[in-house]
Design goal:
mainly alpha, 81% helix
Amino acid sequence: MEATAQTQAKPRAQTAARHERRQIGARWLLDGHIWLMMAFLYAPIAVLVLFSFTTDSFGVRWTGFTFDWYAKLLDDARLITATLNSLKVAAISTFFSTVLGTLGALALERFRFPGRAAVDGLIYMPIIIPEIVMGLSLLAFFSCVFDIIEFFTGMKLKMSMVTVVLAHITFSISFVVVVVRASLRGFDRRLEEAAADLGAGPWRTFWNITFPLILPGIIGGALLAFTLSLDDFIISFFTSGPGNPLLPTEVYASVKRAITPKINAISTIMLVVSISLIGLSQLLQRKRT
């Protein structure tokens, strides 16, 4: 009996050992795949940041460490103008897209009305369609509107900062709606019902109960909209027009003229700002949940 038990236990032990070896091999393959994927995604960014500190005038070789390229950014008047323009556009478009997006999220999440399903689907269109299509469609739309205005009034309008702001509001609203709706889905409606039972009206209930609880989601959506507006190139390129430099388009134009570590420096600053804003947005949304 004892010999039979030992004979049966031996194959089971061998099978368990083979299974453990397979698990170890699979874990190594998975870890290796993750590290290769991370290197593929972030190695170019790391190189960009590294060469923003090089002393090489072309920014393609490491010849020494310096902060001079960051200091020289302050002497570039056109780049500073483009940065200020981008900040203005991002701030204005973020304000309007946050207000409109929050109202849209409340309407879609709280009310039932004819065409709600269609509106719900259309909200995602600016998110899923290619940005080049969005830019071309906005360019065609503004051109058509300008032609109509010129026909009836004789006024000749052209692309300006106003068209850029309107374009950024158009694609930012969808992102705000998605983020705010996520906050509303986790909202406990019994709190509003309790406030109503205590005599609070709809307006007071909204400002004292609903708004404070969804505020992290609203701020997260606003930060996401600000980041997308600040980083956007394609839509800004199609809707800005001549004489209205924006930071992404100015960086693109500078690269076409000559590649210098100054471009690496401004790109690094944009990268840090974008990561900080997105990280803050995620932190606020996690705090809400």
